[in-house]
Amino acid sequence: MVGGRITSEERSTLSTYIGLGVVTVLAAxxxxxxxxxxxxxxxxxxxxxxxxxxxxxxLRRRLKPEQYSVVRENKDQTAFQNEFxxxxxxxxxxxxxxxxxxxxxxxxxxxxxGRPTFSKPISKDLLVEKADTSRDMQRTEVRAKRSDAHLGxxxxxxxxxxxxxxxVNSAAFRFIPIERMKDEGYExxxxxxxxx
Length: 196
Fold this sequence. Notes:
Layout: H1 8-44, H2 56-62, H3 65-71, E1 91-95, E2 101-104, E3 117-118, E4 127-132, E5 139-144, E6 150-156, E7 164-168, E8 173-177, H4 190-193
Antiparallel strand pairs: 1-2, 1-8, 3-7, 4-5, 5-6, 6-7
């Protein structure tokens, strides 16, 4: 520094240090966001019964608004205007919150409801049935036992192969096609969807 002024050489050195500092901060930020997104992907891939159910703030961030309104605010989707009502692919339907497999495509049938309709769940122990008298109706609500997600409704149905109908909301599920089950951590569930 000459007479209180910064020389061009000092200015160049200072600029280099500032530039290195900015690059370091940006690189650290990129690594952090990569690790966070990798952890979040790990949190929603496969099913681990020991993984805790995500809290409400995480669900609001992770789920689409329609998914959140269905599973946490007990809303129902419009018939014939939802993702899986006419899905005919082979695979499993997993809880959008925990990734727990709840229904298989082999138990799906056209119940005429405009919603995914199943004759039975993978296991009744995975669901909770509750009386619902809202909207001046008598019906049985179906919720996922582990996540407490609102799924849809259960009805007696003589047209179903089991005499039962589970009419559920697409937004409560993620569909894992058979060809992706191994890659997404659901290999143990392949026997449930392989045709005998």
